Amino acid sequence: MDPNTSYLQKHPNVTSSRVSNFLNKGQWEETNIHASLYDSRVSGEPHVKMEWWPAPGLERPTFAHAAKQEFSPISTGHTFGPGWATHWVRATIKIPKEFEGKQVRFLFDPECEAMVWSAEGEALQGITGASDSGCHHVDFILTNKAKADEGARILYLEIACNGLFGNPGPHSLIAPPNKDRRFSLREADLVVLNEAAWAMLHDMGILLDAYKTLPASSPRAWQALSTANDMVNVYEPNDKASINRALEISKKFFASRGGEANHQVYAIGNCHIDTAWLWPYDETKRKVARSWSTQLDYMDRYPEYKFAASQAQQFEWLQTLYPALFKRVQEKAKTGQFIPIGGTWIEMDCNIPSGESLARQFLLGQKYFEKHFNQRSKVFWLPDTFGYSSQLPQIVRLSGAEYFFTQKLSWNNINKFPHTTFRWIGLDGSHILTHMAPAETYTANATASQLISSVARHKDISYTNESLYLYGNGDGGGGPLEDMIERLDRMKDVDGLPRVKHAHPNEFYEHVDKTNKGLVTWKGELYFELHRGTYTSQAKTKKFNRQSEFLLRDVEMLSVMAKSIAHGFAYPSKEIERLWKLVCLNQFHDVIPGTSIEIVYEDTDAIYADVVQSATAMKQDALIALFNHVSLNSVDEATGMLFVNTTAWPRTEVVAVPGLDHAGIQQVRKQDNAALVIATSVPELGVSVVDLTDTGAESIPVTVFKDTNGDVVLENLYVTARIGKHGQLVSLWDKRDERELIPDNKRANVFYLHDDIPLFWDAWDIEIYNLEKKAELPATKVVIVDEGPLVASVCIEIPISEQSKLRQWVSLSAISPRLDFACDVDWHESRKCLKVSFTWDIYNDMATYETQYGVIQRPTHRNTTWDMAKFEVCAHKFVDLSEYGYGVALLNDCKYGYSTLGNTMSMTLLRSPKAPDANCDMGNHTFRYAIYPHKGAFGESDVVQEAYQFNIPLVQLPVDYEIAANAADSAGATPYFSLAGAPNVVLDTVKAAEDNPNDVIVRMYEAYGGHARATLTTKLNVSAAQKTNILEEKMDNLKISPAAKGSKGKSVSINIKPFEIVTVKFIIKS
Ligand SMILES: [Zn+2]
């Protein structure tokens, strides 16, 4: 080295910019490494001849269909479009003689996504065109060794007119799609690579990153920079030997080993494909094939390389649509290179789906992986979901998994989550080993700088010196690229850098589990401090989901009942599974949260229509099997009504029967002319018959009147509710407790229109500052509609704006303190949000929110930034505010966004974001909610049961009373299942067993947070009973005893812990 020129350490920025320029395309590419990357290149005819066929409209035809069409000649510069269209190109390729003996690649860049097909119709590999930077992947290896006498070969290219993030409009990734987008064929060349030049590029990329990221105190930083600088010095663009001399220089740097104390990175390739988001489900099916076929090729080329893919649904799509590819995936799964992971049907949202839905995600997912890959996933894999319910640790454990991976909490916008590797403890005390990748991404790019800084971000390195690193382009970027694998292979063990190995995620978790020095814990939900609007956006989808969950619940339960008594009734296992798969599909983490583009919701509407229609038909089939001997075809001749109760406790309710016209009817509801009938003490999971000629006059009627102030007063045996002229509740008096629930000068049922302008993520985020800007919405009309004796109601009209309005029916029945609100909203706003709030004379630092199979308490104050961040939270069927001795619950039939600040509860009803769906939530909406005052704090109440009832109407069938009453017992007046001794335990699900539809599964859970000893009795012909996990595998045998005196059947007694989910399998004597 010449001492006069060796002053690098005095001008490091100049030198590092020099190295950077050497590695980048652009201004210096004719003199830098890019001048040497390809030894040869040819384009156009005679070597590459191209012909083209555009599929009509927006169809996505199969290969077999496309290959039969007439193709016309094109050349580079040809354009493809519009957005979402499909075009096919047939390329006839003749490799030049001078490429003999060399590896030859076909560079095909249509600026969008494409699939390379063989002439025989085999899907070979995905292409990601140039329009999305960083994910460019356009080369396909034609041959590793070209032959001299090689003839012409034909390839087909299926061109999908979308980028990996769909077709966003101008200015933003999430702008609604630009349907007119076009893509241009940039290149279609045959090339031979200069492998040494590529090696130099990979080496120097690492050296430059190491210099930039390592601290200046590290000698390795300086060694990296001077090594890279020396390499530039020896390089000559026209001298291949100079590249080999440069590689001799870098070899010395990489030969210096790190040692065992260095941080160990477990690297796993992946290609996170959102099952729908800025593109529809049908495009995802092709994205999966494109990305995974690309990865299969890398697995052949890099034997140590490992790749994980989640979501059983995506595997099933591949299996159905690309059976040959699926076989290759199965083969690579056997060798351990292709790793099916996650255990769930799709990577679901964990806020909105019910407890049973989460259970089904695992049941369907694990069953699929077991059947087709002979393995279950031990890792629950959810890198990108918007918050994690406190019941997940238990559900994960009960589903055969024990580890959890995510990283999404790194997006929190208020508090930094304090852990990387920890034990996450759920609601019931179950815990799972959890890791949040310190790289803070699941689409890492395998650069040295990312690896170095991810070690710096590891928050638990004192207890465990390992981390998981998920790299690879997602969403159609095809997963890891060649350069990423090349770089990682260079960084296996290099002094100054973390050590890297390709590994199955299980290897990481098992190692940490065994070797950690005691891990920290985190108890309760992993609340995501962002995307709080996802509890509300796309309201219709959320409503359909709730409706589908309860409809399938009824179908399964009634089908079990029907099978037990009706000979020849076959439990529709297959159809039920098909519908659960559809419901689970729509629970994907960009679909049900409401963050997809408009065409996705056209698909979900059609899917839900299928679910609702098919499930309703199956429910009807079960009812016919159960009650055919008594039920009438129409209500016209009915002298009685038969009610079926699918909840697990007796119910007395006023039921609205549409179309019924009978002399004994006491009241017809004016809103819809439905007859009102009291169903008294309908037994749990059983039936009762009401005599329509018996007027049931013993109940004390509900009354309604307008008082001298103009307030409307609704009153029954339990409460007096006073509605002011603005449509708000100004007083709610509990007559049983002689207690006013609304504080002086406060009100409940107050509507507000808030500004709703987030920082960036429009459909995703409700932001805290929007709470500062709101307008109260008073009613312009309050009219008495129904005047009892069974139901009294008031209709309220509230103008929201010039273009939007709300109508609401507030009703009180004669037999319950529950005040019901049915809403009908015509909604045409832009970036506004509709909320309704309730202020109660109740004080508590905590409010109770229903979550999956349990409840969670969250603060009603904002003491700390962690409390404050929860200004909008998720709840399922209810929110409750209780104090010693008393409480009020707010029930709902399809709303999920809530807050409680002090003694004011708010429910978010509708939003109006404009991206990525420009028409999100525009139009008509109907929903219901209710106020349920109760004696005793939440823990001593029956709020959970009341919320089920609010969502699950009694099933009604018109009958001839005499015939039905006599036949009632055979039809089910004795409950099929009943729970005794444990009012805190809720029986949720009854279904046929997966392995044998003769056997029956009953799922229940402890709902209030206390121990219980429950006795479960069934009148089915049971020969044995087991406690099982969610996968329906035996955990314990349960002792069967004869049922208690006075009831038929067999019983099992079960000890249940707070918030425990218990699954019982009854083996039925055939
Ligand atoms: Zn995602």
TrEMBL record:
Residues 529-608 form the Glycoside hydrolase family 38 central domain. Its EC number is 3.2.1.24. The keyword Ribosomal protein does not apply. It catalyses: Hydrolysis of terminal, non-reducing alpha-D-mannose residues in alpha-D-mannosides. InterPro entries: Ams1-like_N, Gal_mutarotase_sf_dom, GH38_C, Glyco_hydro/deAcase_b/a-brl, Glyco_hydro_38_C, Glyco_hydro_38_cen, Glyco_hydro_38_cen_sf, Glyco_hydro_38_N. One of its GO terms (molecular function) is carbohydrate binding. The keyword Metal-binding applies. One of its GO terms (cellular component) is fungal-type vacuole membrane. It comes from the Eukaryota. SMART domains: Alpha-mann_mid. It is an enzyme of class 3 (hydrolase). GO terms for biological process: mannose metabolic process; oligosaccharide catabolic process. Keywords: Glycosidase, Hydrolase, Metal-binding. SUPFAM superfamilies: Families 57/38 glycoside transferase middle domain, Galactose mutarotase-like, Glycoside hydrolase/deacetylase. Degrades free oligosaccharides in the vacuole. Belongs to the glycosyl hydrolase 38 family. This is Alpha-mannosidase. It comes from Coemansia spiralis. The gene is AMS1_2.
